[in-house]
Structures are given as C-alpha cells and as structure tokens.
Amino acid sequence: MFRFDEGLKVYVHREAVDFRMGINGLSILVEQAMGLDHAAAAVFVFGNRRRDRIKILGWHRNGFWLLQKRLEADRFFWPDQQPVVTLTVEQLHWLLEGVNLAAVRKHPQRNYTRIT
Description:
This protein is of the alpha+beta class. The chain has helices at residues 23-32, 89-97; strands spanning 9-13, 42-47, 53-60, 63-70, 84-87. Helices cover 16% and strands 27% of the residues.
C-alpha cells in the first residue's frame, strides 16, 4: 500500500503540465526537467494551467502510483518559488486541502536546555 509517511519527500513541479500526460511522460519530466530520480522514495506533484487539477506520481517497490484530484469550482494555491519546490507531507496535505502555503507560517521549533 502506498502511504504518505512523514519521511516521504514531496517535490512540486511549478510549471503547468499537459494533463493528457500519463505515467511515462511524467516520469520523463521528473528525470529531465526536475533532475530527480523517478524511483526515489518521494512523490512528485504536477498541476495543470488552470490549477484546478493535481497529479501525484510516486514509485512503490515495483511500480508507479498515479493519483489525481480534480476540483469542481475552486483552484489550488500553487507555490511560486524556485522551479522545483520541496514540501513536507504535512504541507502536501495543506495544498490538497486548498491552503495557501505562502500565507502559512508555523511557530519555529524551539529547543531549550533548561526550563527555568
């Protein structure tokens, strides 16, 4: 079973892709445009031009998974940073839920040596 475990890496392809593209075309995009290994322990997220659809490509042991989500009335808030954006699994869930990642700021993790 394919799972979005906490240690899974998430890469977002920022440019829009043609959604007629399937597993073979997307895995070529991962290797050539993103410069990454399509069989790595990671998922690769792609969006269409209107940002109302997302495809997620992942490799699990002996084959690919291709997941797609289509919104009926809304749009996904797409990251607008470098060409390949790295997210956490938690941020991927936020993206799929429609949260604008640019507006979300978590509290920094603090490590204290003493409590007093």
